[in-house]
Amino acid sequence: MAIGKSPLCYLSFSLFSALLLILLATLTSGNGLQTPKFHGFSFREITVQQIQLGFKRNQFTSRRLVEFYLKEIDRINPLLKGVLELNPDALSQADKADHERSTKAAISLSPLHGVPILIKDNIATKDKMNTTAGSYALLGSVVPRDAGVVTKLRKAGAIILGKASLSEWSHFRSNNAPSGWNGRGGQGKNPYTGGDPCGSSSGSAISVAANMGAVSIGTETDGSILCPSNNNLVVGFKPTVGLTSRAGVIPISPRQDSVGPICRTVSDAVYVLDVIAGIDYNDKATIETSRYIPKGGYAQFLKADGLRGKRLGIVINPFYLGIGNDTIAIIEKHLNTLRKRGAVLLDNLEIPNLAAYGNSGSAENTAMLAEFRISLNEYLKELVASPVRSLADAIAFNKKNPKLEKLEYGQELFINAEATKGIRKAEKEALSFMNRLNREGFEKLMTKNKLDALVTPTASVSPTLAIGGFPGVIVPAGFDSDGQPFGLVFGGLKGSEPKLIEIAYGFEQATKIRKPPKL
């Protein structure tokens, strides 16, 4: 009798299946060190590819995966405060995904099908959850529709697990408020240090770093994806502005706002980007920017030898200044790894108009204050229902509810933005200055030296990328002497995502720095 047809073999398989189900139901310890394991991998640090493989082999279900994350959120989130609100329909969405998979529905072929995802709480979901930017001023507001990226995620079969916490109003209410704090959820904490998680997409980074979700979505106006990813040892992908839709996202500056993935691996971030990138007619910028999307999508650029032949630039001043010697030593080791993997590094480059970059923050602030008032008022007016209908209403709400909003942190950015009168002479001069800065600075540096990417430590390059709408990917690079995680950013010109993916993935596969926090 063939072994494959042995009754004993069938009995053993049934017994194994029964034991596996028991293991799934019970094996989650109080300290989180034991987690369900399947053929060498566990739910902790599980990747999108591993999730899909587990589904294909019938090793677990979407429901079981969602239940794991809900338990971890219940256990860890009271301390870390990375998740602001859970989706009451998450389990029913998981059951729907399991049914679609069992019937081999076409949607089940999507790489994000059945995958639980956390959405930053400034991104609209037309469901039972709130969209508040962490503020009580928007609690109970009703959005007209899902945000453009959420629509794409639902079409791909992703499970919306909940809303990630953030720095309130994407850190654009006051400069005095701590990073990672919001009125509704309190102070988010870095799972590695217990300290600064960085903002404003703090909860998105905290949550995936601490394994409270499979993948997450953040937003960036200036540093709000790159900085939390840096501090929490995860991968952050800030796309070219307009590559992903901002429709339904509580805005700061449409000129700089970008929606992107925050995940534990480069490949996971790329699978998410493949889903959320593309045209959304509610965000006209996506129509023009969609020309950058390569035929066949972005996952094809996940190449282990992606560093070979890439020209990478090193600008010491200002990006490497003020970094400790121990961290510099780690960075030097990584730069040598890049060389060994076939990259060509151009050392000691200079940004042509470096001195002018010192004024970029002032120009950026001048433009953003006016842009914020205009775009926020448009967003609030479109809401089906809301406690506030304008920036002026939000300022008044805070004054009436000082304890709810911890008004001791102030709201000077709100007040300064409300005082603007549109895009007038000062704003136009600021915009012109930044355009010239991009053209004569970063763009000239990249084109003159024929660079594929600029390599910088931590998130110090974020203002340079932000004011030009340029993309950047940050990958875990290690810990400094104080135990603070940090990453390397690979930044490029608009539409350079394919090259950045090859570089970031090649670096990640060569180093594999990422490890979970000891919770």
UniProtKB/TrEMBL annotation:
InterPro entries assigned to the protein according to its UniProt record, in alphabetical order: Amidase_dom
Keyword terms of this UniProt record: Signal
Annotated Amidase domain residues: 65-464
Keyword Signal belongs to the record: yes
Signal peptide location: 1-32
UniProt region (Disordered), positions on chain: 177-197
Name of protein: Amidase domain-containing protein
Source organism: Carya illinoinensis
Lineage, broadest ranks: Eukaryota, Viridiplantae, Streptophyta, Embryophyta, Tracheophyta
